[in-house]
Amino acid sequence: MTHIERTHILAPCKRFGINPMEIDDSLTYGENRRHVSEREQREWATQYKQYLDALRKKLEGAGYVVKAPDM
Asked: pTM here?
């Protein structure tokens, strides 16, 4: 894996708090990117859920009734 490829993989690691030690130099760029993407999606989903929970609490604190979405 080249230095440029490693830099491209490190960017989402930094943005989503993924440990850069998870990048394995013995794997190809594509394999590492796939692994980081899976972690990125899980981290994004967690952060989004936290955001929605905080928003719900704020709205309920202001007197609004918040319904849970149908899933």
From this structure: 0.68
